[in-house]
Amino acid sequence: MKYYSKSLDILMKSPVTDEMIQYLTKVTLKVLPNNKYNNTVSQHHYPSPPSSPNELKTFQQQQRLPSLRAFITRLVRYTNVYTQTLLTTACYLNKLKRILPRDAKGLPSTVHRLFLACLILSAKFHNDSSPLNKHWAKYTDGLFSCDDINLMERQLLNLLNWDLRVTEDDLILDLQFLLEPIREHIMKTEIQIKKRTQRQALQQQQQQQQQQQYKVYQATRVPISTTPVHYNNISIYSSNNKLHERDCSIASNMSSATLVSSSRSSSRCGSEIDLNKRIITPIPCKLVPDNNMTYSTSTPYIQHL
């Protein structure tokens, strides 16, 4: 029922459409289903001309009587009636259908009179201000006079026993044909929103699980060691407490004395290895004797090749 209530709110706030006018036309024709004049205008099968003055007036009125749908469309265009006021006439028409006998008949303009009377009562009962009956007579383009409108209004009030109340359940029941497409659209929209919400919640849950797994991984991961391993005055930082085998063997097997002795024994002419492993490239050289000068091996003259 909540979907029908939402659909009714949407329907009452929407503008008047041709679908609404067509629906009201069908509802009005169902009030007098056995009226032989319901289809005469559309089929252009008019009865023979009458002989009496009263019958002549009815015949002339029938000659210029528009179809019921055209009549309702003209009233809607002239009055700019609200959607609520227009659709409430369906409730009054259905009440008349339950009150009147099934074999009830009328004149060719009876269905026009029924709809106009229901529309006038709906406008007067549900609105603070509404057109006067003389204005309604103008809206019919002279089809009905002000006296005719006064008479049909009193007759309708007597048939309805002056009970013009319309509840929400009455509107939902009588306008179900117009409410059903709106209800289906609302249900489909809510299902789509629900699926989208569930998908977003699942994505958030997956993201949270990934974040938790990353936190667990960071907590269980062995931190990088910051304790340096010294080798030849060079600090080597180990990753995950794993040193290269070569560095470990060098650092463990070689002492500072061994390094010093090895550096002394390996020194040659023009080359030297310091403790910091800085290697000076040896320069090829030879001793050149000089007749004018005396020299010793400690201070040789060096000539580059």
TrEMBL record:
<dbReference type="GO" id="GO:0000307">
    <property type="term" value="C:cyclin-dependent protein kinase holoenzyme complex"/>
</dbReference>
<feature type="domain" description="Cyclin-like">
    <location>
        <begin position="70"/>
        <end position="158"/>
    </location>
</feature>
<comment type="similarity">
    <text>Belongs to the cyclin family.</text>
</comment>
<protein>
    <recommendedName>
        <fullName>Cyclin-like domain-containing protein</fullName>
    </recommendedName>
</protein>
<dbReference type="InterPro" id="IPR036915">
    <property type="entry name" value="Cyclin-like_sf"/>
</dbReference>
<dbReference type="InterPro" id="IPR006671">
    <property type="entry name" value="Cyclin_N"/>
</dbReference>
<dbReference type="InterPro" id="IPR012104">
    <property type="entry name" value="PHO85_cyclin_1/2/9"/>
</dbReference>
<dbReference type="GO" id="GO:0005634">
    <property type="term" value="C:nucleus"/>
</dbReference>
<dbReference type="InterPro" id="IPR013922">
    <property type="entry name" value="Cyclin_PHO80-like"/>
</dbReference>
<dbReference type="GO" id="GO:0019901">
    <property type="term" value="F:protein kinase binding"/>
</dbReference>
<dbReference type="GO" id="GO:0016538">
    <property type="term" value="F:cyclin-dependent protein serine/threonine kinase regulator activity"/>
</dbReference>
<dbReference type="InterPro" id="IPR013763">
    <property type="entry name" value="Cyclin-like_dom"/>
</dbReference>
<dbReference type="Pfam" id="PF00134">
    <property type="entry name" value="Cyclin_N"/>
</dbReference>
<dbReference type="GO" id="GO:0051726">
    <property type="term" value="P:regulation of cell cycle"/>
</dbReference>
<keyword id="KW-0195">Cyclin</keyword>
